[in-house]
TrEMBL record:
Name the record gives this protein: Prophage protein
Source taxon at top rank: Bacteria
Chain residue ranges for the region called Disordered: 66-86
Biased segments, Polar residues type: 68-83
Length: 117
């Protein structure tokens, strides 16, 4: 079973919308920085809480950004949350990774016939 990467995990937050919002914020702030020569900022905060007695967590994800303008700055803050499952190594996914590799188990028992090389 392949372990998810950081990109994949962040891409699952809010069904991918969080990653899209973050990308858009980075673009807007970069354009403000280029246009004004002033500093801008993009911040991501992730707060995790356990869901009951399960091996799941509720991740509250907050995106804040400040885009410089000619006469000041504009800023925005957006918070949403996503429940995620944590496996025994702490990898987070949107759905539990409980499916065993059936072919490996069947091969161990001699139930699989290899075809070709």
């Amino acid at each position: 079973m392949a372990k998810p990467t950081l990109d994949e995990t962040l891409g699952e937050l809010d069904a991918g919308i969080f990653a899209q919002k973050t990308h858009e914020a980075l673009k807007q702030v970069a354009m403000g920085v280029i246009a004004t020569g002033k500093k801008g900022q993009v911040s991501i905060t992730l707060d995790l809480d356990r869901i009951g007695d399960s091996s799941s967590v509720q991740i509250k994800h907050t995106l804040k950004f400040s885009r410089p303008t000619k006469n000041g700055k504009t800023s925005e803050e957006n918070t949403t949350s996503t429940p995620m499952y944590a496996d025994n190594l702490g990898y987070l996914t949107i759905s539990p990774q409980t499916q065993d590799d059936l072919f490996k188990e069947s091969e161990k028992r001699g139930n699989v016939t290899k075809i070709g090389g």
